[in-house]
Structures are given as C-alpha cells and as structure tokens.
Amino acid sequence: MLLHALLFVLGLVALVVGAEALVRGASRLAVSWGISPLVVGLTVVAFGTSAPEMAVSVGAALSGSSDLAIGNVVGSNIANVLLILGISALIAPLLVHEQVIRQEIPIMIGASLVVVAMALDGNIGRVEATLLFVLVIVYTVFLVVQSRRATQATEVEYASEIPTSQWDRHWSVQAVLVIGGLGLLVLGAGWLVDSAVAFARVMGVSDLVIGLTVVAVGTSMPEIATSLIAALRGQRDIAVGNVVGSNIFNLLAVLGAAGVVSTSGLGVPDAARNFDLWVMLAVAFACLPILLTGREIARWE
User: Fold this and answer.
1) Nearest by Cα to 71 from 301, 262, 298, 258
2) Alpha-carbon span 75 to 282, nearest angstrom
C-alpha cells in the first residue's frame, strides 16, 4: 500500500508537470506556425490541461478498467464547474465573454446530452466513440475558421495565455517540451491508474467511485492551476473559457479515444447511468442561468 501511495502521488506530479510542459511547448509552437491566439487559447490551452484526463482514461480503457475511464471524465467535468469555477469566482467575480455564453456553453451542454444519450444502453461502443472523436475535430476546425473573423481585442485577450519567456523561443526547445510533456503524461497516467485500481480493490471501493473522486480531482489539477492564476490576475474569460473548453474536450476527445482503443467499447456502470451522468448534465445546464444574469459569476453564486 505504501508503494501504491507513493506511485499515486508521483503519478499526479508527473501529470501536472507533463501538462504544463505540453501546454507551454504546444502554445509556443502554435504561435510560431502563425495560428491565431484565439484558437490557441480555446484549443491548445484548454485541451492541453485536459491531457491528464486523456492519458488516464485511455490507459484505463487499455487495461480494461472502463469504469475508471468513465468516472474520470464525469468526475472531472463536475469538478471543473463546481470546484474550479467556484473557487475562481470566490477569488474575484468572473466576467464572461459573450462568445462563451452564446457558443461554448451551448456546445458543452450539447456534448453532455450526446454522451448521456449514448450511455443509456450501458455501453459506449466503438462507432459511437468514433463519432465523439470526429465531433471534436469538427469543433476544432470550426474554431480555426471562426478565428479568421476574430476581432483584434479578442485576439489580444487570448494572447495573454501564451508564455512570453525567452528560454523557450526556439522551436527545438518547444518540441522537447511537447515530447517530454507527453512522456510524463503517459508515465504518470500509468502510475495513477495502477495505484487507483489497487486502492479500490483493497478498500472495497469501485473503480467508478475512485475515478469520480480522487482521480478526477487529481487530473483536474492543471485546470485548477490555470483558472486560479487567471482569476488572481483578473484575466477576463480565461478561467471560464479554460473550464468550458476542457469539458468539451473531455466529453468528445477523451471518451472518444478511450472508447476507440477499448476492445468492446466503454461499459457504463449502472451507478453512473442512474446518478452521476445526470449530475454532470445538471451541472452543465447550471452554467446557463448563472452566466445569463449579468454575464458574471458572482461570489455568492
């Protein structure tokens, strides 16, 4: 148990450090290749902070622990909204860009509805998982096309997400950060999954519950760090955009990839179908009334 506890902690550290390296390297590479800062902010940064969820869920699916893969995504999406937005808004009321209200949140709700509908029969098959992954590609392409019409003010806003340090300006350093970050994510995910499953078996707790709680919060550490720093710096919309973008990526790309690599699709446990998936859906819908009342998440909310 001590060994598994050590591997669990080391896995979390590797996931957080790997995600940071991946986000930094990928962001700088994107800017070097002339990709709009808007697209980098909504995709590379938001999706990059979800890389631990991707690594853990795909690793769990490959090892046959589909309950852990499902629980990780569902728990992370619940934690992203309730925990991360909650703490961020306690630090400072969060102003929300109109595009997030008009476009990103409805897309997040739509993706949640699609996943719940697919899970009702107890299995997200390979064909359904492939459809989810195709949808995230379509969403990303849509953002790229849309960014060509982005205003200068919006581009400047999202450009604040991109690191401005000197040491990683060369493309070779950026490539090393991306490769090293991916390596740490894979390594950390393996340690985290193995130790989490061992804990579950020893404690008599299901893989689903472990995924919904400890693993979900652990893999949400990059989102927590990004959103809290954004809130402390008063960066408009970054905290909300990071959470919403990460949730979309979790639902479409993470579940999609996990379902594709799984031999028989992702089995959805009864507990998730009867309760947890509906909580995730309710949390997604809860964003609408909060953000429509004055385009701000107040401290009391």
Assistant:
1) 258
2) 13
Q: How many CB atoms lie within 10 A of CB 177?
A: 22
Distance CA 262, CA 179 (A): 24
> In this structure, which amino acid lies at residue 276?
D
Cα–Cα dist 259/124, whole Å: 7
Is the pTM above the cut of 0.70? yes
Q: Please, what is the Cα angle at 128 between 127 and 134, to 5 degrees? A: 90
Closest-CA residue to 75 (of 187, 184, 191, 206): 206
Q: Which residue has the higher pLDDT, 172 or 84?
A: 84
Q: Tell me: the pLDDT tens digits for 267-291?
A: 999 999 999 999 999 999 998 877 6
Side-chain-side CA neighbours of residue 109 (13 Å): 15
Count CA atoms within 13 Å of residue 248 on its CB side.
29
Whole-angstrom distance, CA of residue 175 vs CA of residue 299? 40
pLDDT tens-digit map of 179-205: 888 788 878 877 887 787 788 778 888
